[in-house]
Amino acid sequence: MVQQPQPQPQRPGWWRDAAIYQVYPRSFADGNGDGTGDLAGVRAKLPYLADLGIEAIWFNPWYPSPMADGGYDVADYRDIDPAFGTLADAEKLITEALQFGIRTIVDVVPNHISDTHPWFRAALAAPPGSPERERFHFRPGRGPDGSEPPNNWVSEFGGVPWTRTTNPDGTPGEWYLHLFATQQPDLNWDHPEVRAEHEDILRFWFDRGVSGVRIDSAALCAKDPQLPDFEKGVDPHPFVDREELHGIYRSWRAIADSYDDPRVLIGEVWLPDAERFVRYLRPDEMHTAFNFDFLARAWDAEQLRTSIDTTLGLHAPVGAPATWVLCNHDVTRTVTRYGRADTRFNFADKAFGTPTDLALGLRRARAGALLSLALPGAVYLYQGEELGLPEVENLPLDRLQDPMHFRSGGTDPGRDGCRVPLPWSGTTQPYGFSPDGVEPWLPQPDDWAALTVEAQSADPDSILSLYRTALRLRRSEPGLRSAEFGWLPGAPGVLAFHRGDGFSCVVNLSDAPVPLPGDATVLLGSAGPLDGELPPDTAVWLRQAG
């Protein structure tokens, strides 16, 4: 039954245990029939998202952008890219989603902007030392003729993170810093105009009803003003996790807390040091941050238990909720990754031609879904994970768009394979993503007919049905709303824990079946029938008797 919108009451602290759905706008649903996903498509699918059981949508950037990096090269934060719609469309979406009880979270990208942004165009037109260039990191080159980059840093996308400009007379000019693509010049966060601009951007979207922001590359904004060479082992790092960042996010938190319904700050913080990671979650900084450690771990009981223990232990002292995520728009889809011999995720290990067992990966992805949804804290669900979509690894090379692929010299497959448009209905492309006869911006596989929302909605054993049931139970089971968590005894290769009110979760990551407790009622299993034992690569939710 399609859910109809009803006004929803506010739930204070909703972000502490919410199920949040990530929408990559280009690939979710095409509402105007041009082959690209848009806000009209999202608005049309709000009943689907409400029926799925999510409580908020996090949108990847929807702002005007040349799309040099999938929208993370923002040209204007106060408008919507015409490919996605208009600012009025966004305002309607925010309002309509709230009628379904779904909040909106938007991306902000403070480290850099697009090279088409008016600020950067003005900087290129201005001479060295001008106020316009002070908003960025312009420097003369090294060497007798300035032909060498100003320092030895390496781009996050590989290669040199500096590009040389050309003076009006055609001679070589200064260099500018871009930790990501050439088209993404880094901002100078020591400049007061940069800080003031971003604080105003937050207010612009908060005033329109956005419930929070996800902060992209949150640990990279601040730079050592001298831009020195990177030296391994030298602390502080010249551009990662610098102390100045915490002052920036404290000012943002003050803005978020100034609203009657306080807004939420969510950080993308890739740091290997867990203790430094959690410093961003102190009570006057961010509310939550993505748990990339859990995402990157292998399908291994010991590794996952270590990640869970570390995550919960570090979050507790600062009072921040943990977050759990299996996949996002940057990483290999769960079904594909969990079907490989090496089930970890590491950007450096991505390569063409890596074999995978998709049937095994799907079984593990189903079990991983119940594991992540049973843990205390918030959970993030990337679009298409509820359909069990695999990574599309045979995209034509001439259709690839991700700069990670091109800056690697073609050795890295890039991230396009997890960004292929969703299949909604039908048996052939475009599977209801666009009208029949319209080619999506990235091609879909020919064998996705069984993975559509339409097909899986009719199958009670589908992964979509599993997610719907699990998300419903996550809202209705008292134990899953509590902060209680404790490990239960289990055989080697088995994770078993309780959450309160008799609820427990058991995940068998071993290669042999294990017995289930005889006094427990099965609420939900990732595979079935169970017949008193839990097969390998299977998870179950239980309620203890009494």
Could you provide a short overview of the structure?
The protein has 546 residues and is of the alpha/beta class.
What would you say this structure looks like, in words?
With 546 residues, the chain is of the alpha/beta class. The chain is built from 15 helices and 18 strands. Strands 9-8-7-3-2-1-11-10 form an eight-stranded parallel beta sheet. Strands 12-13-14-18-16 form a five-stranded antiparallel beta sheet. Strand 2 (56-59), helix 3 and strand 3 (103-108) form a beta-alpha-beta unit. Helix 5 packs parallel to helix 6 and helix 11 runs parallel beside helix 14 (463-476). The longest helix has 17 residues, at 358-374. The protein is globular. The mean pLDDT is 95.
Stretches where pLDDT falls below 50 for ≥5 residues?
none
Alpha-beta content class: alpha/beta
Tell how many strands the DSSP assignment holds: 18
Largest sheet: 8 strands, parallel
**Helical coverage, percent range:** 25-40%
| Spatial shape | globular
- In what range is the share of β-strand residues? 5-15%
Radius of gyration: 24 Å
- How many DSSP H or I helices? 15
Overall mean confidence score, pLDDT: 95
| Order of strands across the main sheet | 9-8-7-3-2-1-11-10
Distance between the termini: 34 Å
Give the tags.
546 residues, 5-stranded antiparallel β-sheet, 8-stranded parallel β-sheet, single chain, globular, alpha/beta, 18 strands, 15 helices
List the SSEs and their pairings:
Layout: E1 19-23, H1 39-44, H2 46-52, E2 56-59, H3 87-99, E3 103-108, H4 118-125, E4 138-139, E5 162-166, E6 172-177, H5 192-206, E7 212-215, H6 244-257, E8 264-267, H7 274-278, E9 288-289, H8 292-296, H9 301-315, E10 323-325, H10 334-337, H11 358-374, E11 378-382, H12 403-407, H13 453-457, H14 463-476, H15 478-481, E12 486-487, E13 494-500, E14 503-508, E15 514-515, E16 520-525, E17 533-534, E18 538-544
Helix pairs in contact: 5-6, 11-14
